[in-house]
Write a structure and sequence with these properties.
mainly beta, OB fold (Dihydrolipoamide Acetyltransferase, E2P), 1 helix, globular
């Protein structure tokens, strides 16, 4: 048995680029994750460390990224690591590591990362909840998303 699963929380480095590939849509966007710096006991400063990840989302997830996110938006992503190579126009072979997105949760309350609430967030989306069905010339996106039940937990002894 093996597992290929990535969980990231970060900010988009630019607006998603969405294009058509055959009858599918694909979005590509860089995501920055930052580990905060700290000061060691001996006084040494360790700076922030930012890693960049190339996200690839297909169909319904690409549409969600396009409609509800922009540069700076904070998102939670689950996906798989995929490596591929390509050849540049000058014949040089390049390698790239990408995160193929399976699930997205929008953590910013609107599409530009601010929290003024002007755009309501869409329901959580996963690759398994957005399915394409073809009936001759019509395409429909079906969502089987149902919100989780709300539990009434009135625990007054919680410290927060």
């Amino acid at each position: 048995m093996s597992v290929n699963k990535v969980i990231l929380v970060g900010n988009l480095g630019k607006d998603p680029e969405v294009r058509e590939v055959g009858q599918n849509r694909v979005a590509q966007v860089p995501l920055a994750t930052t580990e905060r710096g700290f000061k060691k006991a001996d006084g040494t400063e360790v700076p922030d460390r930012t890693e960049w990840h190339n996200l690839v989302a297909w169909n319904g997830l690409a549409t969600i990224l396009e409609k509800y996110t922009s540069k700076g938006s904070k998102i939670y992503v689950e996906g798989k690591i995929r490596n591929r190579s390509y050849e540049t126009s000058s014949g040089e072979k390049r390698y790239i590591t990408e995160i193929f997105v399976d699930n997205i949760d929008l953590l910013s309350s609107n599409n530009n990362g601010n929290s003024n609430g002007s755009v309501p967030p869409p329901p959580p989306a996963t690759a398994s909840t957005t399915k394409q069905s073809s009936n001759k010339d019509t395409k429909q996106t079906k969502s089987s998303y149902t919100p989780p039940p709300v539990e009434d937990t009135n625990d007054d002894d919680l410290p927060f």
